[in-house]
User: Fold this.
Amino acid sequence: MKRKLIVSIITIMVIVGAIFALSACNRTASPQGQLANFLIDHQKEHFVYDVSIGDDLIGTYSVTVTLCKSGETINFPIAIENAKKGVLVESVLDVTKDGKHSVYSTGCYFSLVNGSSLMVPSHTYRKQEEDGVQTFFMTGTYEGSTFKYERKIGEETSNGSFKLSGTYFDNNEFQQSLRTVSTFSTGFSMAFTTPLVSQSEAASVSLTASCSKVVKVKTAYTDSFEDYKETGVDCYKVTLSRSTKVAGVTQTLYFAAQNLKTTNNPDGFTMHNVLVEFHEPLTADGNSNQYVAYTLKTAEILA
Assistant:
């Protein structure tokens, strides 16, 4: 069954996949070691990506990552009051294709545990709009290894829950979560699960991420710096595949192998394992050889 454009074949959309975010994991160390909080010397990061199919620019994808203090009220679609210290990651994918304007808004709040060494997903949401009309809305909470959700499709509302096992990431923001893996290398490989709640599914999904090499990547972001303009930046090429339904179909993500400068203050703090570019298949079943490309345009530290 085909799904419409920009619905990530692996988890559904999130760019949205690519989509980027921050760190997330379960309450135990991952096979590679704990995922570290990289917002140590600053509190907010903001990324903007161009979204294209072939030579056609169809929109933008933006991600904001914010460190939040303990006791704050987090302004999710549903407010989280007196939250634990943690990280809020929110993204917006805004695209127009074949005359249809689509907006996907996602977010996840991660609580910091064990000091600042491990981030645990606690709340998540996704909203989809087509030509200004909301077509899908989901909120979810993590309670231990149980994921509880409520979703609204059109005017119909339903809820449910299911168990997660092993190392898990939040579906809405797992691309950014991978930024915090402490053992990125050309031999990197890990399996994890993520909750997938869409119009047609509500289940735990198994994914595998692996890195085979380092490659040079050029985008509008790298072209804006003399240091990167000629050759681009070194990136870990990571493939992400789902074990069922779309086996053999992959997303490809390129994470910077070096700390990168910011667009707004190139002489200040740098950012770690930035997601510079990623590609996802145009259809959910992989029957098209076209890919949606997300390429980094700006990367900023805002606070």
Notes: Confidence is low (pLDDT under 50) at residues 1-35. The chain has one domain: 14-301. Helices lie at 174-177, 220-223, 226-229.
